[in-house]
Design brief:
The protein is α/β, with parallel strands linked by helices and about 475 residues long. It has 17 helices and nine strands. Strands 3-5-6-1-7-8-9 form a seven-stranded mixed beta sheet, sandwiched between helices. A two-stranded parallel ribbon has the order 2-4. About 30% of the residues are buried. The N terminus is likely disordered.
């Protein structure tokens, strides 16, 4: 077929463009210096791409998953203590007001529960209620003693809302729940992430002036009423009601109340034990970065600590697609507790349902899976105090109410969930844990960390 007129110039375009490109030294357009600079830029871009690719291959992304109060933030602090203790030390002063809040909340809860129990005991005809009433008789005028302590503690308990408001910095939670709820990155220990994963600058310096003011006020008030706090905590009526489970406190409350004299000192600085025991509800997703060295190679460990309340679990999904590993925490001590968001759902049942969803999620089929059956220390204390598992978990039946039998029963249930629902046919690494036991937890951290990194090496081909 003959070529159409007007199109014969197309064959000469490559020659013309080649001369413009200056690739031929004989071309009048050739510029040796420009070519040298261009080649240098190309080489640098290739090297930068190679560096980035290598860095990405050495990046290990780990998600901490589990319901609220499962121990995720405490595990993150344990990782920080082991791999980046200097950052934990730097942030200690920022935790002072949170420790104070934990104590104030505990004191208020004790006083409120005492008022309720003492006012309703006469009408409580249950066996447990009559036993408590009988035990309180030898104590005499309990109501009068508690009333006197309450009046002296009013300056402290009245600070709860203002301290919570300043720490929360305007963050509120639907449902009217009170307490401290902070966004990820509320202090220098964490880096907040927006939905598109862009990092915000970490906080620097001390707390805002308003927080500093209310913290100093709380410190002075604690110091002035520390004797009254100690008297309340050690009061025989409080002991009787605690032993009979008529007063329920946050898990960390006994630790802080036992240490009130130390914490009430004007030069108080939170200890490592304080940081591990403190309770704070974090909203959103926090990214924490650690450098971990294995066999002479440094890996960048990115740990995502995410809110575990039901209303926050939708925020997990954007981080699933490239997660190297999932560390799922199940608080097996919570067999006798119910979700704050849903008083009909047993917390252990919720953990099993959540673990089922993790095992069956297609986005996570290639992620390494680690299960931590957490809070074994609290489980032991509950069982030793006589709390019967079968009262809350009817399927437990007449099995022995011992720690070895109960913990193995719970472990078997989670193992069964994995076998039935895991679509990736992955090996499940399961450990019993107590996040407050530093030595034992850090042994787990080393084992888990090495297993995850070795799995990552095998998957990415790193040598």
């Amino acid at each position: 077929m003959a070529k159409r007129a007007g199109h014969t110039h197309s064959s000469s375009e490559p020659t013309f463009l080649q001369s413009i490109g200056g690739t031929s030294k004989s071309s009048p357009y050739y510029d040796e210096e420009a070519t040298r600079v261009s080649q240098k830029i190309d080489d640098e871009l290739k090297r930068e791409w190679a560096r980035r690719k290598d860095a990405m291959r050495r990046q290990v992304k780990v998600m901490l998953l589990g319901q609220a109060e499962s121990g995720k933030s405490t595990l993150q602090k344990q990782f920080q203590l082991y791999y980046a203790h200097q950052t934990l030390d730097h942030g200690r002063p920022l935790w002072r007001p949170v420790v104070y809040f934990n104590i104030i909340k505990a004191v208020r809860m004790i006083l409120d529960e005492l008022d309720y129990e003492l006012s309703t005991l006469d009408s409580d005809q249950s066996i447990e209620g009559q036993a408590v009433a009988h035990a309180l008789v030898p104590l005499g005028d309990v109501s009068g003693e508690i009333s006197r302590l309450r009046s002296k503690l009013v300056p402290l308990t009245s600070m709860e809302d203002s301290l919570a408001s300043e720490l929360s910095n305007g963050v509120s939670v639907t449902g009217g729940r009170s307490g401290v709820y902070v966004r990820a990155g509320w202090q220098a220990l964490g880096t907040p992430l927006s939905p598109n994963r862009s990092k915000a600058a970490p906080a620097t310096g001390g707390p805002p002036p308003a927080v500093a003011h209310v913290t100093n006020l709380a410190s002075r008030t604690l110091m002035s009423v520390q004797s009254e706090i100690d008297d309340l905590w050690k009061h025989p009526a409080v002991r009787i009601l605690l032993d009979n489970r008529r007063i329920r406190l946050d898990e960390s409350a006994p630790f802080f109340l036992d240490n009130i004299v130390r914490i009430a000192q004007p030069d108080y600085l939170p200890t490592t034990a304080d940081l591990l025991n403190v309770r704070l509800q974090t909203l959103g997703v926090s990214e924490h970065s650690f450098d971990i060295e294995l066999c002479g190679t440094r890996y960048n460990w990115l740990m995502y600590d995410v809110g575990g309340a039901r209303g926050q679990r939708h925020a997990w999904v954007p981080y699933f697609d490239d997660a190297t590993a999932i560390i799922f925490l199940a608080p097996i001590s919570a067999f006798d507790q119910y979700l704050e968001e849903d008083g009909r759902t047993n917390r252990l049942d919720d953990s099993l349902q959540l673990f089922t969803a993790i095992c069956s999620n297609k986005l996570l089929r290639n992620s390494h899976l680690v299960l931590l059956l957490n809070k074994t220390d609290l489980l032991k204390k509950k069982l030793e105090s006589g709390i019967k598992v079968r009262k809350y978990i009817t399927s437990y039946g007449d099995r022995p109410n011992t720690f070895s039998d109960v913990s193995e029963y719970f472990r078997a249930h989670f193992i069964q969930v994995h076998r039935r629902n895991d679509i990736g046919r992955r090996v499940l690494y399961a450990h019993f844990s107590s996040m407050l036991d530093i030595r034992a937890t850090q042994a787990i951290i080393v084992n888990v960390g090495e297993a995850i990194i070795r799995s990552h090496i095998a998957r990415t081909g790193l040598a």
